Amino acid sequence: AVVSTQSTGKIFEKEAIGGRLREMKIGGKSYDSGGSIIHSENFYSKALTEKVGLKVEKLDNSGGAGFYDGKGYVLKLTGTAFKDKFKVLGRYGFGVSNVVKEGEKMLKNLKKVYCLQQNQVSFKTPVELLNATAPDFVKKLGQTMKETLTSIGVADIIQNELVAATLHTNYNQDLGVNGFVGFVSLAGGLVGSLWRVDGGNFLLPARLVEHTKAEVISSTVKSISPSSSSGYTLTYSTSDAEDITEDFDAVIIATPLHNAELDLPDDIDQESYLKPFQRTLATFVNGILAPLVPGEKNPSDILTVTSKDKLLFSSIGMKGEADKDFNYKIFSKEQLTEAQLNKLFSKINDVKVVDWLAYPKYSVPDSVPNFEMAPGLYYVNAIESAASAIEMSCIGSKNVALLAYQYLEKVDNVDSGKVCRDVRNFREEL
What we know:
eight-stranded mixed β-sheet
């Protein structure tokens, strides 16, 4: 995205608006192949959904969930809150409450970022943003999820089953991720409720672009360089023309740089912005899933726990009835072979696969790149190195918009220490 000398915005996109929010059609139905869930406390996502006239669809787990170790289910939940509470307590005891309390504290602390941004406070780095929101967030960035959980007294069985299952499902990774992204992952499973945009989350980016009336140019951006006057020169190509150059006052990069093949100004350390990403295969199957455990009915959602065995998949979710039989979504680290799919399914009508570089590979220690690459040049996706989620991208985008506004209009930043000292009664007015 860019802001030009004519004060109009242009969006350069080589594929389709939405990035990793994308539609998948199978069995006569439509689904999200990328980001598919949003948390009830994600205020930007909800506000933007309503702003463009889309509706919120609450998600339920009435079909239950099973926690699978490669041989059987260590825990099966019914989808009924009252019954499931006793099942969880029966296996894990009251130690689960430590996880829930920590998750609730994180969501409460996160509210401060909305207050800060409402007061037009911007940050040049994600670490500065997280530290101003809650210093504990930065502490979690420097710990593995296992270290974070152990420090608050969470038993190994809870870590290896409940927590690992959410990480396998949400990030295709394990307890070695940083504690901050670990609790972002947990929030959806243990604290609050979940929803999606009615019709699919992939609808939201396109509607937002329509709402802004920004010009969308189907193209590949090849380089960004300082212009001869001020601002930056973009070099890009379209299907109709050779390389085109155009000058802009500010440039915002809103795609992961690891696969952008983009040349940046010489004084920017491009290597510091390149992160390894986790490959995740989303395999959609129209058919009938065979019983994973002989003699037992499959729950709607099958999550995997820490296992000594190498499992074929990270999770399997039944998406619902199709025009014929049922539709399923499988997450795995490697592409499933025909033989492996035939082992999992008693009947297969159709298979479609999306091969994602879905989110950063999280490790500790790790580096987090800057939002501000140089004055007037910004990188939204820096926030993903702390945690990747739809709402995190919204928070990163709002911060970058503030940085660009302050740069272009020569507006001083607001001191984060002078605002939002007490957010207990803060009401989000988005």
